[in-house]
């Protein structure tokens, strides 16, 4: 097909603004699926995506469309995840497009991630079509949202499309607007091959399926391709377009979006952002923008039953075939046995991996307290990166410490300003700014330590704003901090799985929280159990589980008081001996309880 008849575009939006529903209506309007085959969230393939109503893994589909002028067009829809954890994947997907539909809820208006995704699209110099969705809602106010788009986003209000993705109203007009306003792709099929990888997933029969945009040149089955990042070469087995199923083609040429199968064994070989070229006729340089995806949140995963360690090993191997951003290495704990130290892109990514392991592989898990990667500068001038409290260096050798900071953007109704500012100050926020993007709403920006955000920040924000607050963040740099290792002692024994790296000012608060939670979960014994929080040899928090009391004097009906005293002294000595040799079994739910924040 000629380049002038191709349109490549993405749909970008804040979470729950109707992105997947609009994609469903576009697919139906282009007659890609019959009513009998149709199901909601057609492009979302995982159960978790359907239940939560979010897109975790981006999908692509080619839509054949006949415009009103009679011309046949090929519309390549590159669907993107909406959550901030997957922002790099979104940026690569946008690089493969010429335009984007900026979807805005007709009742909620512009949110934090609406702005973040708009800026990402502008950086890639995309043509943007603003689309107001959910106009069928009783609370919809399209006129006010149109004014917001013009005043706050600086986009032309004349190009705004009004649609209801649920009912299908306005979708046909939107398709015409896409054909009219979005530019066709550029590229020369006669130049050396330049293909941008924007996604990859694993098929157990065919290997890695590479989703790519052909910038220049062409590729066909039988060609030998070269990955410019790791210089590995593969022979192409099949190329094609994404319909609801894969549709093989003779070749892919400049301007097209499609897939390449080349018998690649792991997804990690085909990293998003990498450039594919031909081995015998390579391009001059790789396409710009590639970077390694680094994990920002770390947590150890242990099976509840030690017998399931081998099953967990196999499950993680299979998951990394589909998700190259998940990193893991072997770990062990005296309390929990053998497990793995895993790196995640964010808290949502952590939750998704945990849920997939428990559902798809039927392995019940325990996760340790999430942490981030800290920099420790030692007295000898060296620097080490630590994400696991077990590797905390000797405090006498530490010269200074640093922790990562983020820039948080929070959009809230005006009435919640005081509560949100208090929350940010509690979490060691600094350099706060705010302005009014529209009447009654405030955009609040604040620089926060990443470690304070991954704990329970988002839950607290949603709670204090009654669900109206929206949150987005971007990583800044490492800044000086005063970090300490908080140990939890149960009956004077350190429980390594409960150790945390925390800022000194937060240590007592975290210690009290852990002690109180453990007190509620650990069953009482015949002796007193002391639960303590400690920094080195200094106890900073403590609670005590009272002993179960047996009435040893019940059999004494009379006689001298000294008989009872002897029995009580004998009991006291027995309990003291029991405390020194007795073991306290910590139930599995106690480890989970420490992870939960206080109910506020």
Automatic annotation (TrEMBL):
It holds the Pfam family LepA_C. Its main location: membrane. Residues 4-186 form the Tr-type G domain. It catalyses: GTP + H2O = GDP + phosphate + H(+). GO terms for cellular component: plasma membrane. It is found in: Cell membrane. It comes from the Bacteria. GO terms for biological process: positive regulation of translation. Keywords: Cell membrane, Elongation factor, GTP-binding, Hydrolase, Membrane, Nucleotide-binding, Protein biosynthesis. Gene3D superfamilies: 3.30.70.240, Elongation factor 4, C-terminal domain, Elongation Factor G (Translational Gtpase), domain 3, P-loop containing nucleotide triphosphate hydrolases, Translation factors. Belongs to the GTP-binding elongation factor family. LepA subfamily. Required for accurate and efficient protein synthesis under certain stress conditions. May act as a fidelity factor of the translation reaction, by catalyzing a one-codon backward translocation of tRNAs on improperly translocated ribosomes. Back-translocation proceeds from a post-translocation (POST) complex to a pre-translocation (PRE) complex, thus giving elongation factor G a second chance to translocate the tRNAs correctly. Binds to ribosomes in a GTP-dependent manner. This is Elongation factor 4. It comes from Candidatus Desulfobia pelagia. The lineage of its organism: Bacteria, Pseudomonadati, Thermodesulfobacteriota, Desulfobulbia, Desulfobulbales.
